[in-house]
Design goal:
Blueprint: H1 2-27, H2 29-46, H3 51-69, H4 79-100, H5 105-127
């Protein structure tokens, strides 16, 4: 019975987290647009398929630049997010350069994971209470 309760609570938590992320993407379309490319490249790479990131790394740079230039919704607008947006742009540019140099998948993966982590930092900062900073 404890296992069933745990599984049910886990599923509820996952749905809540996904719903919360979707709210952010609705409030900040440029964040959702970046997420679309991030998801389409990162998840295949997790399974060893690096073709999507190799094909879309330039698009990821463009989406990061648009995200950085976009109007940050007031509820998310804080210095930490603006700094993370600059970092995201820098890291996507570095990833694209690595891809263009036809680096080994391991090096591409390391750069992609770094981009992914920065993206999740931004999403996390959108969740944190503004009063706690």
């Amino acid at each position: 019975m404890k296992k069933i309760c745990f599984v049910v609570m886990l599923l509820i938590s996952l749905v809540a987290v996904e719903s919360n992320a979707q709210d952010k993407f609705a409030a900040w379309p440029a964040l959702g647009s970046f997420h679309t490319v991030m998801s389409a490249t990162f998840h295949p790479a997790e399974k060893g398929d690096f073709d999507p990131v190799k094909q879309r790394s330039g698009e990821m740079v463009d989406k990061a630049a648009l995200l950085e230039k976009s109007a940050v919704p007031a509820q998310f607008d804080k210095p930490e997010i603006r700094a993370a947006l600059k970092t995201l742009k820098t890291k996507t540019t570095a990833l694209n350069k690595i891809v263009l140099k036809k680096a080994k998948n391991e090096k591409i993966n390391a750069a992609l994971v770094s981009v992914h982590d920065t993206f999740h930092d931004i999403v996390g900062l959108c969740t944190e209470d503004k009063e706690s900073h």
